Amino acid sequence: MNPEEVLRIVEQIHLERKIDKETVFVGVEQALVIAARKHSDAGDDATVDVHIDRQTGEINAYRDNVPLTTEEIAERIGAQTAKQVIIQKIRDAERDAIYDEYYPQLDEMIVGTVHRNEGGATLVTLPNVEAILPRSEKIPGETLRVGDRARFLIVEVRKAGSKVKVILSRSRPLLVKRLFEQEVPEIVEGVVEIKGVSREPGHRAKIAVSTNDPRVDLVGACVGVRGARSRNVTEELNGERVDVVPWSDDPARFIQSALRPAVVDEVILCPMIGRAIVLVQRDQRSLAIGRRGQNVRLAAKLCEWDVDVMTRDELDEMLAKAMEAFVQIDGVTQDLADQLVGEGFLSYDDLSLIEISDLVELGGLSEDAAQAIADEAERRAEEQEEEAREAKRVAAEARLSEELGSSSEIPTE
After folding, report:
1. Closest to 299 in 3D by CA, of 331, 267, 272, 334
2. Number of domains composing the chain
3. Beta sheet of 306-310, edge-to-edge order
4. Quick check: is 256 in a domain?
């Protein structure tokens, strides 16, 4: 290759592939070194150095510190071999450039165009690369058609051979956060802060927000005038409803807000077991729990507490049953049972999970005695679980028998 050809190749690759010129020069130098070694008597043991003048394109090559003439370079480096190695190096450089472009965008949102659907996955066209939206990262029930433009979360960027593999998501909670950051200027300005997101993709999400400025209407800022901001998020998420929840450093108050629109009478926190018992009126119970338990599940994820919704009568009944059950275990006194119930342990299953050190402290027990109580609670919990499975099996058999009996009856006139 003459100097003019070298400069022309570098310029062409720089313009067509949008790769930095220095990267291209380095790739060509490395390619020439590899090609020269392949045609050297010493093979890989030969010390070959190649430098290309960035201004003139002149190639300076050395073999074992001995300069090579232009003729020797041409002789030792076969044109076809050099071309193949250069192409590979340029592909590597192109891959590295794409990787360097997208890796810093991990967990960021990007707009892409659906290219095609392949099996359960969707291929999405992004600048300089084709990304993958796996089935597991899709919003359930959403159909993305070829040509559709949508927003995605970049969740993985890795090198795969000569290419870069970019994995996208539309189902992760972080996408909800990124969408609100785009829609709500107060978040970008730092006036409003997103503290957490819980989500069941395609159905419903909850987002907790806070502010240090008491003059700011948190819910109003996120919802927007006539609900425009939250509506834009919902439309982007294929109709997924998003509840905006004011955050509080008081867990009880935060849980109460997260369970809206239900009206909560009281929140009892049990830190030792990580449980929050939420008391509501009977007519508010189903509203607090939500359809198929969705509202309470999302609230529990958002607040990071195990939330149990019940009426006062239901709690009193559970407390009485727990007290009666715990005192049946050897070593559990009435006083210890009362303390355990007060800490939120309401079943053998709960008690089997207690930290031995906590049980030692509560009951003034030895570690061996505490371990024996936990082991017995676990044994009884397994027995109850087995009994429940058996009862469920018997009930299912009874229903099946009843259905078969009804179908075999011959109607008479």
Report:
1. 267
2. 4
3. 266-270, 275-279, 306-310
4. no
